[in-house]
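This week, study the protein below.
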Amino acid sequence: MPNRCLAEWLTLLESRHPSEIELGLGRVRAVWERLQVSTVTNNTHTKPSIAITVAGTNGKGSCIASMQALLLQHGYSVGMVTSPHFLTYNERICLAGKPVSDAIIVAAFEQIEAVCGDISLTYFEFGTLAALLVFRDASPDVMLLEVGLGGRLDAINIIDADVAVVTSIALDHQDWLGDTREAIAAEKIGIARASRPLLIGEQDYPQGFEQMIAATGADALYMGRDFSYSEEPLFSAKLISSAGPMQFDQLSASGLLPVNKTLALQALLSAGITLNEQDSRNALDAVGLTGRHQTLSYQGVEVILDVAHNPAAAGALAQNLPAIEGRTLAIASVLEDKDWTGIVAAMSQSVDEWFIAQISDTARASKGQTLLEVLYNADQSGRLCESIEQALLSALKQATATDRIVVFGSFHTVAAVLKIILAEVSSE
């Protein structure tokens, strides 16, 4: 087997499988079973890690980041797998809050390659198995597992979650999950396991939702009914633990949304994790996440980065933008399977001028002219730029000290802007 570096592995995996997305557990489960037989773990711990799996149209990353912060603040060891990444692939697999090294990922890839045989895995499936191998060897107290797409047929679902969380249910990825909220809900609650906790963050249920939940046999807890949170600017979380009701007060509503912080608290309590109020407050006060309402200053202008890539997420972004004296300039672009018309409608009252461009690092990008036509049809003022990077430069030329720039629409869009900002910061 050739000695490949991580970059070479990723290039190989991107080109090997005939389709970027192929839902189903049969192939990935078969390889996972082979790995259990053929590979030897170095850890001597006998207690298995608690597995918490998180699905949802929006809010998955924020919920998992909040749980990681809470666990680390309380002294627990934690492994976390998320996707996609912004700057480096290593961001997808974290131990103790830090991305693992190239060498650890390559070693896991080599173990997977050795047992695949005639089974072809997607890029995402290969990475999921690598994360699970890393966690098996490290044996953290808790594994935080983010679903990549849907839930029922996502590779993460080969692991039986001790606690399952569904953050939200909205229209997205309809080509794979179905074109109704009912169909999408059925896919997402597929991570539930009978007689184990299932937390529901969505409060606007699709038709027949409670019957779907009952059919899973899971012990369901509903946001707004069984646990809840108060309003901003500081919020209180009313929670349920094995010892009875709990309430944590004076929690920060800045950064990540209170709904996702509350889900994180309840998920850990449902997993039997002991939390105290002050440590929880400290953790949630400090927690943030790249590209989730992340606020930076660049060349004297406030820049807000948010990966909102569907109408529901765009609506939440618009709702959480504070009032300012100046204008809001948007840098936005989406992949071709996204509801750009719905995103524009959700942000139209919040944006004064749009700077758009076609995403350049994926073949799945929506065409720039298509983006522009939707803006014009919505009576929005916008200009088409050659690239996301050029859109940023154009917006900066227009911006004054009282204006702000909001970047959204895709991980690709946010990553392109983030790379520019971080490159300048690192060179100072």
Remarks:
- The chain is about 40% helix and 20% strand.
- The longest strand covers residues 244-252.
